[in-house]
Fold this sequence. Notes:
Domain TFIIS central: 201-324
Strand content: 5-15%
Order of helices and strands: HHHHHHHHHHHHHHHEEEE
Family: Belongs to the TFS-II family.
Structural class: mainly alpha
Largest sheet: 4 strands, antiparallel
Mean pLDDT: 74
Domain TFIIS-type: 327-367
Main location: nucleus
Shape: elongated
Distance between the termini: 143 Å
Strand order of the largest sheet: 1-2-3-4
Function: Necessary for efficient RNA polymerase II transcription elongation past template-encoded arresting sites.
Amino acid sequence: METELLELFESVKRAADAAADGASSNGPEVDRCIDALKTLKKFPVSYDALLSAQVGKRLRQITKHPVGKIQSAASDLLEMWKKIVIEETTRDKKNSSLDTKSSTKTETGKTEAVKVQRIDRTSSIKVEVSAKQLSTINKGDSANYSRSESVKIEKKVTDMSAAMVEKKPKEEKQVSGMKKPSQTHNGPPKLSAMIKCNDAVRDKVRELLAEALSKVYDEADDDIRDEVNACDAIRVAVQVESVMFEKLGRSNGTQKFKYRSIMFNVKDPNNPDLRRKVLLGQVKPERLCNMTAEEMASEQRKLQNNQIKEKALFDCERGGPPKATTDQFKCGRCGQRKCTYYQLQTRSADEPMTTFVTCVNCNNHWKFC
């Protein structure tokens, strides 16, 4: 195929050179070159033949021929060869991918077959050994031996299944009866001594805070005891005092009353909730510095404050000058004599007092001197 392809192309090349020398677009040389290109186009070619003969590169020179007919025919032939190359390369890629897939399937099938054969061989070996053992036994004893073996095997299987059934609920009971493991905290280790800051006043505040926060260990309930024990009272006291010093300044400065309020509420024996929240981090040191005395107070103290406010509000509403009830005055609106009154000295001392009257029936107000 390669030699024939080269011979045809050489004839095309000679005819193209002759047509270029003649320099006429309708001469016999042009027709001879076009006929040679048509025969070359009908010749069956493949990717391997084109690659080995290298006729594609030489055909590109003919596509630049000065005669237009030869140029168009050569370009058509070159496009056809390009399509053939593209189709064959894509087909080869698909076939290679299918071959790889089939090879992987065959490999997996071989491994599975090998496994099955191994299993079958082992099982057959077991059967042969048992048959040999049975053949060595007498005929009368073989029946008894096989029966005893079957009975033993059945008993073992039934016993194992019963044991498995019995073991499952026991394991479930053990899992359900196990206590939940306590949560492990991977925080920093607890401090064994107070961190000093070379300031006697600040060190005293830290010691008082640590002493107050350490009470939470005895006051905590069983539900949160593990969480409380994982907290470090000394470390929290140092953090609280540092934030207080940054935001409020020194304890004997302008904010000394705020210091006293915080220290009083933290050390208050009737206010364990505030200590617990500060130790567990539910109330941050920054929030503690901005809390009012009412917010830091215990629940009992808040209830007492609310009662005091309600009582004061009630007294304020019913406060004012005392009013007397009488039937001496007659209401000019409704004509009833159910009235209340009180007197005030609204003018000078030598003038009589002013009497303010209110009708109980229609709430009419009037005054007289």
